[in-house]
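Consider the tokenized backbone below.
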């Protein structure tokens, strides 16, 4: 509005610090709760196991679970009937560091809506009405794609990787042993990396908005991209049937299609 005046930068800084303080408090409380609240509240089973400890065991078990219908065919082809992974603590604080990382991740998931609210409220005064709409849409798309990538990594990519690693070590007569810190760092880094890679359609859309790339370029390149995707997935999947290859390739083909559609939309808006 014409009568609106921009607030001094000191007020923006004070507001930013206030909101960061509230976010930090919420994250700290959520993280602390993971070490206090028993998972039995959700399962109804007797006993007392804090959520962070439960998640630590569950992540390990899910990574070596051969009953996963997407992992079982690969394990069968490689002749692996059982996955045995030994985790050792090299340092006396290794397990504590891993538990803290898991607790922080739990805290981030729980407090994500609250964090998103404060980020939005801080940016809102500087946005026009149509910019608010695009920011909301961008945030929802980012969270959806990121979560899809994390789940894809957790249930498909990382378990298959564990099977292939076991097979390679078995060929050399070596047992699969990780430090507990190394194992969980590998899992967490893999989930975050693949989760972020799933958001690349938004990067492409933004590049199209800045006129750094055109939808026509993406459309012309789809054959080469498809070939590269199938070539890479065929190499990383030892399954001689095309099932595993298609399971791995399909999400990236969908993401490329989404990138093209978003780029077309943003280029039209520009």
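A designed sequence for it:
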């Amino acid at each position: 509005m014409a009568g609106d005046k921009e607030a001094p930068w000191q007020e923006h800084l004070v507001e930013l610090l206030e909101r960061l303080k509230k976010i930090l408090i919420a994250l700290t409380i959520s993280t602390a709760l993971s070490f206090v609240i028993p998972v039995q509240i959700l399962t109804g089973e007797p006993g007392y196991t804090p959520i962070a400890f439960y998640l630590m065991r569950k992540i390990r078990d899910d990574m070596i679970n051969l009953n996963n219908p997407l992992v079982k065919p690969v394990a069968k082809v490689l002749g692996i009937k059982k996955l045995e992974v030994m985790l050792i603590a090299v340092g006396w604080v290794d397990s504590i560091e891993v538990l803290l990382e898991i607790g922080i991740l739990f805290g981030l998931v729980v407090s994500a809506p609250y964090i998103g609210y404060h980020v939005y409220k801080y940016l809102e005064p500087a946005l026009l009405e149509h910019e608010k709409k695009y920011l909301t849409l961008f945030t929802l798309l980012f969270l959806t794609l990121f979560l899809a990538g994390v789940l894809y990594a957790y249930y498909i990519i990382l378990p298959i990787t564990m099977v292939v690693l076991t097979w390679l070590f078995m060929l050399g007569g070596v047992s699969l042993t990780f430090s507990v810190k190394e194992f969980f760092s590998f899992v967490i880094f893999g989930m975050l990396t693949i989760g972020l890679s799933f958001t690349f359609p938004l990067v492409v859309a933004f590049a199209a908005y800045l006129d750094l790339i055109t939808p026509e370029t993406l459309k012309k390149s789809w054959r080469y991209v498809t070939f590269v995707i199938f070539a890479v997935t065929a190499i990383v999947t030892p399954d001689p049937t095309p099932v595993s290859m298609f399971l791995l390739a399909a999400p990236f083909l969908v993401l490329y299609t989404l990138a093209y559609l978003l780029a077309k939309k943003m280029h039209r808006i520009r």
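Residues 201 and 257 are 9 Å apart (CA to CA).
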